[in-house]
């Protein structure tokens, strides 16, 4: 088999390419996961559909009541975007905290989602914000799915063979949010956990509504209900040490049979603390 | 596939396998061996080049993706026999030991200065987070970048 490289110029061209996609064909966006995977797993026979320069997928749009982020928008673009900083601060923090400048310059939000890596930093944010994912297939049909439903496990999504993520839609709201993570390098993968908290504050800085998602304590980010319950109605100034019991219990429930749970219980206390601090910033 | 790319200021039009990695293309086809390959996993930064004014790991880019774009490697920093201020600073401050990380390190710093001519210390540190150095302990590297800024690196931009 000859390797091939298709760079679609328009939607029709992209649909044709998706139509011919077989098990050796990969959709390439930033390449920070895919090309490394080729090298690691010695995959030398492959066909590429490169969407990284596809302009339709590269913009961040203000739709009035929502924000539309193209699937090939990079982490660098997200962290520097004023609209995202204002409306979805946790997403800006998550992008800011991705490994290295070189990776941030290439890694895309759509790639993060499609790869569904357990430590994908933007995923808990998309879960907390109830993001809708726009997906295109080879027949030029569009469907929408919640990020929460799209990701089904580690490296697993509901994406079909001829489908590609085109954009991510997030509704604007009065909520503010924060993101935090522990461990950033691949060499310390075991310690990687991350979390996004999205809260609604009243005039007295009391938390009136809260949604917390934690990543890497399960096959996909989990809703931290016990911690949410504990924080609800409290002041934003709350110290995470007062939440210790519920944080530990939350991790216990998420990964009861994993030896990493002991470490992750301790790490999660710092994680929640940093997430709250990020909201206060 | 025919690829058009500007490398170190020179227009190149070449018939090449677009599924080759950028690092292999630069080293094997263009003989730009200043581009180093360390980890092949996007983690060490030795293979860093500047692609359209941004630092990228050339082990995680395919040649087909650079069509119509502009690349700078360490070989492109010297102008008319004169080293770039960053290169001079790295030498004078002693920010180089074995030198394996140096091309990538300097290019990460160069990309930073192209977009942010007067970075803070934290911004410098952040820019080189993806460049591992086993020898220097980074202090000298940050110092070198600060010296290059003092010496007026930006005049050539
Ligand atoms: S060789 Fe590319 S980052 Fe290490
Ligand atoms: S000088 Fe040896 S790795 Fe940096």
Per the CATH scheme, the topology name of the largest domain in chain B is Ubiquitin-like (UB roll)
The SS-based structural class of chain B is alpha+beta
Strand order of the largest sheet of chain B: 2-1-5-3-4
Question: Helices and strands of chain A, in N-to-C order?
Answer: EHEHEEEHHHHHHEEHEEEEEEEHHH
Sum this structure up briefly:
The complex is a heterodimer of chains A (281) and B (157). Chain A has 281 residues and is an alpha+beta fold.
Summarize the SSE layout with pairings.
The complex is a heterodimer of chains A (281) and B (157).
Chain A: E1 4-6, H1 11-19, E2 25-28, H2 34-40, E3 47-50, E4 60-62, E5 66-70, H3 75-80, H4 82-87, H5 89-96, H6 101-104, H7 109-115, H8 123-128, E6 132-137, E7 142-146, H9 147-150, E8 151-153, E9 156-157, E10 163-171, E11 176-182, E12 193-201, E13 207-215, E14 222-223, H10 225-231, H11 244-254, H12 261-280
Parallel strand pairs in A: 1-3, 2-3
Antiparallel strand pairs in A: 4-5, 5-10, 6-7, 6-10, 8-9, 11-12, 12-13, 13-14
Helix pairs in contact in A: 10-11, 11-12
Chain B: E1 2-7, E2 10-15, H1 22-29, E3 48-51, E4 54-57, E5 69-72, H2 85-93, H3 102-115, H4 121-127, H5 139-150
Parallel strand pairs in B: 1-5
Antiparallel strand pairs in B: 1-2, 3-4, 3-5
Helix pairs in contact in B: 2-5
The complex binds FE2/S2 (inorganic) cluster (FES) (2 copies).
One FE2/S2 (inorganic) cluster binds at residues 37-47, 57, 59 of chain B.
């Amino acid at each position: 088999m000859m390797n091939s490289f298709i760079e679609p110029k328009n939607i029709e061209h992209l649909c044709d390419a998706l139509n011919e996609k077989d098990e050796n064909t990969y959709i390439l966006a930033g390449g920070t996961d895919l090309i490394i995977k080729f090298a690691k797993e010695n995959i030398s026979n492959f066909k590429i559909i490169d969407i990284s320069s596809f302009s339709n997928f590269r913009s961040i749009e203000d739709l009035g009541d929502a924000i539309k982020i193209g699937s090939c928008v990079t982490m660098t673009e997200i962290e520097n975007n004023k609209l995202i900083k204002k409306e979805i601060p946790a997403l800006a923090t998550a992008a800011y905290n991705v490994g290295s400048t070189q990776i941030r310059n290439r890694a895309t939000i759509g790639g993060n989602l499609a790869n569904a890596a357990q430590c994908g930093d933007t995923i808990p944010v998309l879960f907390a914000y109830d993001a809708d994912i726009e997906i295109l297939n080879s027949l030029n049909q569009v469907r929408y799915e919640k990020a929460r439903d799209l990701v089904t496990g580690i490296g697993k999504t509901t994406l079909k063979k001829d489908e590609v993520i085109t954009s991510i839609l997030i509704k604007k709201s009065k909520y503010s949010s924060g993101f935090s993570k522990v461990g950033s390098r691949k060499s310390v993968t075991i310690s990687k956990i991350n979390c996004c908290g999205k809260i609604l504050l009243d005039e007295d800085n009391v938390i009136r509504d809260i949604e917390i998602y934690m990543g890497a304590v399960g096959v996909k980010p989990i809703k931290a209900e016990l911690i949410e319950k504990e924080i609800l109605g409290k002041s934003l100034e709350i110290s995470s040490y007062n939440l210790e019991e519920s944080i530990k219990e939350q991790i216990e429930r998420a990964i009861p049979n994993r030896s990493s749970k002991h470490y992750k219980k301790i790490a999660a206390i710092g994680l929640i603390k940093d997430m709250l601090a990020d909201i206060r910033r | 596939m025919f690829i058009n790319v500007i490398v170190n200021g020179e227009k190149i039009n070449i018939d090449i396998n677009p599924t080759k990695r950028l690092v292999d293309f630069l080293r094997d086809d263009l003989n730009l061996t200043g581009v180093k390959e360390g980890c092949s996993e996007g983690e060490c930064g030795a293979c860093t080049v500047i692609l359209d004014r941004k630092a990228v790991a050339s082990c995680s880019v395919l040649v087909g993706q650079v069509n119509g774009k502009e690349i700078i490697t360490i070989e492109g920093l010297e102008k008319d026999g004169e080293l770039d201020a960053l290169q001079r600073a790295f030498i004078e401050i002693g920010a180089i030991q074995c030198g394996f990380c140096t091309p990538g390190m300097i290019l990460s710093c160069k990309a930073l200065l192209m977009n942010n001519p007067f970075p803070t210390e934290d911004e410098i540190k952040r820019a080189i987070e993806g460049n591992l150095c086993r020898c220097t302990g980074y202090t000298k590297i940050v110092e070198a970048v600060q010296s290059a800024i003092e010496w007026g690196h930006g005049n050539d931009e």
